[in-house]
Amino acid sequence: MLFDFYGRILFRLAKRYLVDQAKTEDAVSESFYIIFKKIGSCNFIAVPPFESWIKRIVVNECLQVLRKEKRFETYDNDENNVNEVDDSTVEKLTAEQIFHLIENLPTGYRTVFNLYEIEGYSHAEIAGLLGISIGTSKSQLSKAKNILQQKLIELDPAYAKRKLV
Description:
By secondary structure, the chain is mainly α. The protein has 2 domains: 2-69, Orthogonal Bundle (Rna Polymerase Sigma Factor, Chain: A); 87-164, Arc Repressor Mutant, subunit A (Orthogonal Bundle), CATH 1.10.10. 73% of the residues lie in helices and 0% in strands. The chain is globular, with a radius of gyration of 18 Å.
C-alpha cells in the first residue's frame, strides 16, 4: 500500500534530480528499501513528518547517485543579463512544461535549483550536501534561474516583441 500510494510521487521527485529513467527507478527502489528497513524504528504521529522523511530519503539517494557519477558539474557562465519574465508567460505554462524546463537544466544547476526552490534547503545545507561552497550554491541557483528565464522568454515570442518596442 505504501508503494502504491507514494511510488509515483517519489518517482517524480527523483526524476527532478536524475533525468535518466533507469537511474530514477533504481534510486526510488533503493529509497523504498531504506524506508521499509527503517520504518519500524520510526514513530510518526502525523502524515506530514512521515512524508518529509520519505522525501528526504529519496533526495539523499538521488544526491548519492549524482556524487557516485561525479555528475554534479558547476558552470561558469557570465550571461547574467536576463530580461524579466511577464507573469502571464508563466501562467500559460502547464506543470509538465515547467517540469521539462527544469529537467533540461545542466545537472549542477538543476540540483541546486531543486534543493533550494522546491525542497526548501538553505545554501549552507546545499553546500554541505553537495560538498561545494555556499557561494557556488548561490551562483548555481542564480545561473539556473537565468537559464529558466531565457527559456520562458523563448516560449513567448510576443513577450519578447513587447519588450523590444
